[in-house]
Design goal:
With about 170 residues, the protein is mainly α. The chain contains seven helices and two strands. The chain has a two-stranded antiparallel sheet. Helix 1 packs across helix 2 (about 35-50), helix 2 (about 35-50) crosses helix 3 and helix 2 packs across helix 4. The protein is globular, with a radius of gyration of 24 Å. The two termini are about 35 Å apart.
Length: about 170
């Protein structure tokens, strides 16, 4: 029996310009260092399990415990982070899920580095938004061998004459 497939990341890269991002600067102006702590802790929880996270009472509690920020303040910071565009507002409004295109792109890129197959749920990213890179999809003709001798071409092929075709 094989190991359980890991869905999250062990390491998540940070954009060195994160503090220069106007969205983050607005949060910092409102909540000072608490905003950085809550946003970073949210990213850690998201990437630990994949590319999104349901935002519920348990998540609010975890973020509060991890950062030392009150649950009410966590709610305010997350609400404003969604409003600023750090998290996708449509997905948050419809499913109470924290994610963004940037988070998903980072997750896909990190999985590609480790050559891990990525399965993105359609509610988060539609197939139209998911880029397909033909260089990453390799088809080895040696692995997929099609032998014309083994494939019946004649529509009159029956089990009677299949014994004759054994190679």
């Amino acid at each position: 029996m094989g190991r359980k497939r890991k869905s999250g990341l062990d390491v998540c890269p940070f954009d060195v310009n994160m503090l220069s991002d106007i969205r983050m600067r607005r949060l910092i102006r409102l909540y000072q260092g608490d905003s950085i702590a809550v946003y970073t802790a949210a990213l850690f929880l998201i990437y630990r399990d994949g590319y999104y996270m349901e935002y519920d009472d348990d998540t609010r509690f975890k973020l509060s415990e991890n950062t030392g920020v009150s649950e009410a303040m966590v709610d305010a910071i997350i609400t404003d982070a969604v409003a600023c565009g750090l998290f996708d507002s449509e997905v948050f409004a419809s499913a109470r899920v924290l994610t963004s295109q940037e988070i998903q792109d980072t997750y896909v890129a990190e999985c590609a580095k480790t050559k891990r197959k990525v399965e993105i749920k359609p509610i988060i990213i539609s197939s139209e938004e998911m880029p397909i890179n033909s260089e990453e999809i390799s088809i080895n003709s040696e692995e997929i061998a099609i032998n014309s001798e083994e494939m019946p071409v004649n529509s009159a092929f029956t089990p009677k004459n299949s014994e004759e075709m054994e190679v």
